[in-house]
Batch of 3 targets.
Target 1
Amino acid sequence: MSNASIEAIAAKSGQPFPGAPNNWQRFFTFSTDHKVIGIQYIVTAFVFFLIGGLLAMVMRGELITPEADLVDRTVYNALFTMHGTIMLFMWTFPVLNGLANYLVPLQIGARDMAFPRLNAAAFWLVPVFGTLLMASFFIPGGPSQSGWWAYPPVSLQNPTGNLINGQVLWLLAVALSGVSSIMGAVNFVTTIFRMRAPGMGWFQMPAFCWTVLSAQMIQLFGLPSLTAGAVMLLLDLTAGTSFFDPAKGGDPVLYQHFFWFYSHPAVYVIILPVFGFFSEIFPVYARKPLFGYKFVVVSSVIITVLSAMVWVHHMFASGTPSWMRMLFMFSTMLISVPTGVKVFAWVATVWGGKLRLDTPMLFALGGLVCFLFAGITGVMLGAVPFDIHVNNTYFVVGHFHYVIYGAAVMGVYAAIYHWFPKMTGHMYYEGLGKLHFALTFIGVNLNFFPMHPLGLMGMPRRVASYDPEFAYWNVIASLGGFLLGVSTLPFILNMISSWILGKRAPANPWNAIGLEWLIPSPPPVENFEEIPIVVSGPYGYGSHEPLVANNPAGELNSEHR
């Protein structure tokens, strides 16, 4: 019996069925509905985002004075290790998987993901490895203290002598995270290749789906490297092997290759879907087609290919041969070209448009500004002499956080606000949204900009105490960090109160173009009563051409505006 049949029977009996859009209990079950799984990912990720943020605020509290006077140095090591791990593996990847889970089937006209049970299993691994990671706070010796990259030989140290220690739990969690992400990648790639609506050719597909496809292809070729490296390091730590242990003839630099072969492309796994958010949001709030649509989507594919050829720029200071330095400096510079194509396309899309500065547009514009700054400093770090000069200083930390928080997190916020009415059937409160944006944008720049002059002055990263000459910029950075912590409060208030009390949302509150806006809010269980037949591209604002030949919503809602 299909979900539609179950829905019909339940409607006649007057009882909500388990997957009904108005049944909140569905979010606490093993559901195979991609929309439920998407929201489960998003909410779970945001819980870990708050935990990782609290750890960051403790670190900024320590760094507000030059002396190590708030926490013990070993505790500080554990704080920055767990902060980085949680924010990457428990927040960024899951929240992007959640948004992609929710949106991709709707945007391509599918009723669900290709493998619904595999989709659910991939999600339920997240609380499993999240619990493993958090359990390390409560065992003797505490969490891992070797950083989120876990370089040996530091990560091979086991001062407690216990078989179950923080580093072992960290490695198990990272390996399970890799398994979950590979399962998700197989699902996304299959869904996009095989389940697009009739008439939706490759260049009729929304840019967001292109970026998800590109990011998941990186997961498929890159994640086995990280997962294998984590398993080999785990064997060194527990079974006495010597893959990376220099005391036994192992090669610790080999681990760096395993780690960075995935972990630099992982930045593109994060930022590519955010590029997709920008490409979806700018046309809606500028009331213009996406400029250079084909160039934008092809540039995503080029980034995917080039991402496999840049990892060694993280190892310029690791005894890398000169010829390799030159080769990877060139490839690092080269990848900025397709990225620049996207930036120019977004600026051209916004230029001359009828801008509507609602909260999603504000976050998208703010994320773009931060990404521009991160791109400039990224090109600087791609140059060998400069990279060696600022290696392991706060300049690198500032650049990385402008990418991950300034661009990626603000892009995620833009997406959540933009599709919130579709997900919940309610409108958010615009005033709280704009307050959230103002606090976030100011907090990002106060927190992360001072790290650049600190790095140029020579302040090393991963230290709990520092020379007093660095105090001025650290005070400003800490104040910005606390402001970022406060900025989450209006967001939480907005999401909860709007979902419960917010005004009912129409199917298409933004007058946007796309298949997801042709169905009710929130969408029915199987998304479309009738699979749409796509007859035009996704960004035809002002063209007055129909998007679909048939109307899945049964309403006159398919004309481009």
Note: Confidence is low (pLDDT under 50) at residues 1-15, 554-561.
Target 2
Amino acid sequence: MKLLLISRVFRKKWFWLLLFPIATAGTVVYTSRDMQREYVTNATIYTGLASGYSITSSEDSRVDYYAINNAFDNLITTIKSSETVEDVALHLLASHLQLTKPNPYILGPKGLAKLNELIDAKNRRQLVVKGNESATYERLKQLAHRPENNLLKKILYDSKSNYAIEGITGRLTVARKNTSDMLELSFKADDPAVCQHTLSDLIDVFRERYTSMKSSETNNVVRYFENQVQQSYRSLQGAENTLRDFGVDHKIINYGEQSKFVAESKEDMTTDYNREVMRYKAAKAAIAAIERRLSNRMSVVTTNEDILARRTELGKAQLQLANAMATGQPASVIEPLQNNFTRLSDELRQVAHTYYSLNNSQEGLPQSNLLDDWLNKLIESEESGARITVMRNRLREYDAIYTEFAPLGSTLNRMEREVGVAEKEYLSVLHGLNLARLRQKNLQMSGPLSVLDPPKFPLSPEPSKRAVLVIAAFLAGFVVMFTFFLVRELLNGSIRTSDQAEKRIGLPLAAAFPLIAKKTTSGVLLNVRHDMLEQLRSVLMIETLAARPDAARPVNNYHLIILFSTRPSEQPSWVGTYLADLLTQAGHSVAYLYPRDTVMTDARPDHEECWRTYHPGPRFSDTRHIGELVSRAGFNGASLSYVFLELPALRETAIPAALVAQASLSLLIVNAASDWARTDSELVNFYQRASRANVMMVVDQIEPDLLEPLTGPIKGKSRKKAKKTPTQTPTTTLSPTPIS
């Protein structure tokens, strides 16, 4: 069906399908008569992004294709950026403004004439520094960066000259060459010198901007890390100084060793103290026992002032000696104290012997021996007492050291952690600084991008695209027109074909007639119409024979055939008249009744006596029997075989239900060019409910090519556009014979 629709569009609209594309192509030919030829130049840049070697490269380093693609995207974006293109345009304009006459290698005559139109002599004097292209460029750059609108901004942003930023960007092509490190640049212009110089300036500006951008990146990174290194170093120095001052203030050299030494020293001192206490108590007990043996003599000795004085002096000397030894004094200090103590001990012995004159004790023991023992124990007790006093003081000092030293450990650990954190931060930032400096050095060593193929001066222009534009215009015109006609065909809501009629109406098809133009010279469509009439007569004969007797012939001997339509424009006159004529020619007695005021749009064949009119008045729908109409028309019902009744349009007149019930066959006449609405469907449904016999449809005025699926190929049919009319011969008006 789609191929059939396309072929129909080609066959019916071939004239417009040729005329519109030809007109479109002709318009393009006319408008492109002055089309300028374009010159193209190319350049190749080596980037080294994928396979280049640098001081940061290594043999086993893996290639990151995502990073490489991203780098190439950055390059292409930088090349096509508005700032880059603007700088190129300013360089090109500064170069051209130095010219006073055309130079084929800088700017041709046409280009110079256009430049003079853009910038007149007055503005040129304000912009140009004669003989100094660099100063002219700087002046143009300052003017371009001014906020107010000026002539230069108009040239750069609102013109179609060689200096327009949008024009340069549109004629520039940048692409990576396959998967290599090469970047291909191409530029086209209507002047070969402009083409070459624009691409050359673009490469210079781009390389400078790219190198500056990369250097700026690394310089900023290096500067950042240098600042961070200084801050981290100051933080590390501050933490170390705090730790040092803390150790100096608290006299800490090595906290762990010092705390261990203090703990061990206190433990040893505690052990010695306990031993000395035991020794002191033992000496005291011994002295008490000896004194009891010496009885009264000893009291004289002990009360002697000389002995007591020397004893006191001996105790002081022992205390000094014990303090010196406990505090670890040098030998030069301890030795005099030891000699003094020995001297006092000997003197005490002599004094004791002098005052003690007895030789034996009460138990008969020698007095000298007891005295010696008493003196020894006395000296021992004095020594022990002095050492105990010193040790007790030393233990108190150890307790004070513990009290001071214990909380210093946690503070010292915290400070050491702060130093460690500051040191790690410093080392990390220092590592980042080294990497940044390495990358900076790498960029300095690699240098700018290398130009492998510089842009050359194009000697010949590119082939003209005029022929391509003309062909494209022709094809575009053809596609537009074909699409227009195809869409119009697809959006056509009419019935058009017999298949559509069966789907939308729901009645069986009795016959389908082609649309025949008034001026057609082909007899093929007339033959198709004749064949369809014969088919319709066959349907009529079969349906009337198969009709129920009570429905077909309730009283009379003739068959009632009703022809009707839903709309006034779909008059069934010509179908009924030709069908009645065929039956009359076959020897049947036929009566054809059609409404009064109906214009017979088809020249009736012979047998004029068969046609009569009737008046479908207000009471027409109440007609009970077809015989009433037949007798009013002047027919003898007993001699008739068929009575054709053409009803008015169902949209205008009520359905005569009694007459419909008497019909042997009802034929709905449908115009293929008309739409089918819901109202039409409802009217047909009501009609079917009233009918006792079959209701079939006849589709009229189907375009011949749409009739082929039903009849097969129709060869030789007229290709002319048919004027939609229900007639095949000139219109004549039948003079009705009214029913009285």
Note: Confidence is low (pLDDT under 50) at residues 551-555, 717-740.
Target 3
Amino acid sequence: MEPTAAGLISRAAHELGLRTDELTAEVEQRLRLELPALWEDPDVARTAAENVVEHVVAALAGLERAIEPDLIELPSADVERARVLARHGTPLSAMLRAFRLAEETVLDRLFAELPRLSQDADQVSAAARQLNVVSTKYVDRVSEQGVRAFQAERDRRLRWRSAMVNEASMCIGTTLDIARTTQELADFATEQFADLVTVDLLDTVLRGRDVAGESALTLRRMAQGPDADGGGPQPPIQPQELHVCPEGSPCAQALSSGRPSRHQHGRRSGVPRAHSTLVVPLRARGTTLGVAEFHRYGTAAPYDDEDLLLAQEIAVRAAVAVDNARHYTHARATALTLQRSLLPREAPRQSAVDVAYRYLPAGSESGVGGDWYDVIPLSGARVALVVGDVVGYGIRAAATMGRLRTAVRTLADIDLPPDELLTHLDDVVLRLANEASSDPDTDPEAGVGRDNGATCLYAVYDPVACCCTLARAGHVPPAVVVRNGTADVLELPPGPPLGRGGLPFETVEVDLPEGSLIALCTDGLIEARTPARTTGASAPESAIGDGSSATATATEDPAPATATEDPAPATVPDDPAPTAPRTSDIDAGLATLRQVLARPAPSLEATCDAVLEALLPSRPDDDVALLLARTRALGADRVATWELEADPAVVAGARSDVSRKLTDWGLEELAFVAELVVSELVTNAIRYGRPPVRLRLIHDRSLLCEVSDAGSTTPHLRRARVFDEGGRGLLLVAQLAGQWGTRHARRGKTVWAELSETAKFPALAFE
């Protein structure tokens, strides 16, 4: 070897190459000391150690053979190792720092060898300078190659992670169903980067409130993947089971700290065969909802930091979807509870009609709406049948429905004709719209009075005259089936929807013989999708009014209508299977309704079920109210009418006629009270009203006394002063009757009083 600087470097590299193991151990020791993060992960540590050995060997071999730095053959696995470091999330600066530290260590040993191989200081100095240049070029070359491979892998991983996150956003949260959303998370993760996934939610979060005495770490297993038939180890806890997260476990730490963690060998994962586990909390809007665990077993590579980051990003999106579903479920349950509390729970006592009814909340994500129905007993043994629909969904629509139903009952109590009642109800809707528009907290999409705030159909059936008076405000017309089986839709003037203001409503009177069937419904029934039910299936469990006990008869009191409780918040029903496109042809829906109503059925309840089965999909898009009424009649043997002259002398004869009729009806015990009431009412009609005067008795569940005249003046109850000779007649009637009132007709009025068999003469003290 010529005594040159290159030769001296070659000899030094040869001498040092004989002690490669010692040199690589020294380099590794220095890296462990100054870059401890490289040795925390076993895979990264193994990669770093292999890199040290192969680069030291390659560099010394190149120096020994005096190969140019650009021509030294780099280790074949160098690029793949850079990719491994990138996949494990090792910082690029750590990799470059490791190269420089290794270079310094090797150079220090080479510099120490040079003086021992040559006594020529100039030669040693030249060799040292040349060695610096060669090593710098070599390390720069290695670093550039590593950086390119590292960055390419990082870019690829970022693209992959971004694609996974985008795909997860599309696959997770497709419905507002908590159970389905969590299962979508489990299914997606097992398809992409996990062998087993479990998703647990805090039980208190699912219930929407804190439960006294319940552990803060009580979880409910919501989903897992794959299922029991998917192979591999299965967790000991099955879906929907409650379990407590042990204190100090990775699960408990994730719930308390809100930070994810990565664990190897599965010692604390609860799945013995899992060798790598990610524990990621599910947090949304500052609230911890639960925790998801991702496990790998078998030959799958252990999780790295990139996997943990991916799991975090997917968990964030899943948590938002779960939180949305949770809020929707709780809001829907609250709205449904409010809706059910505002709807009639049982049919009232009356003899005019037998009724059956159903209410079904919307099965879509729009939630509970504002449909309602009502049966209101009126004076004269009549009954009002009401169906209405408030635009909008949720609690506000349900609350508005309750206010409108109360308004209808109040207006019905003063016996307004249907058209006048709707006119007053229109004013109520306008006032509610004004209140909503001035409320800063009002949801612009949920208020009333916007876009046809409400619709209503109001019908009054009179069992004495066997006729029905109807008016509608933008509502679906009713269908009628007479006793011969002919079904038809009543042609009623549509009237404007409630909330328009200033437009008139029209009343139509139709004859309905005893046994006729009239069906009132909301548009959600006849505009629903093509049905997807099995023929003969029962009505949906969520239908309010389900059960034969909803029928009100003339001989016995109706029992409360049954209603199935809402499902638990975590188990909202799945979306329906795809069905035919929604039809806007209301006539087609009405035609189907007519066909079903015309079929013979054993009861009104069976007819209700048949209507829902024929017209509704498994989960309707809109809520539905259906009210069926079969008419009854009060025959001539239960009604007595007398035309009276406008002469006070006829009062005594009227009392006698009433007494005889009550004897015929077996109501002698009411004779005394009835004579007093009739005497006062007839006297008032003769004295203050206008002829003709008519007296009518109706023997229904109670005794109804009615006196009609052509006058329009309404009598008012007042308290007479001590020395007044008059003014106590209506006070006496009010004391004797269970109820009394006045109803107006197109011409004249009727003052009525209801007497029950328990009526007694009160102890009146006149001061």
Note: The CA atoms of residues 220 and 242 lie 4 Å apart.
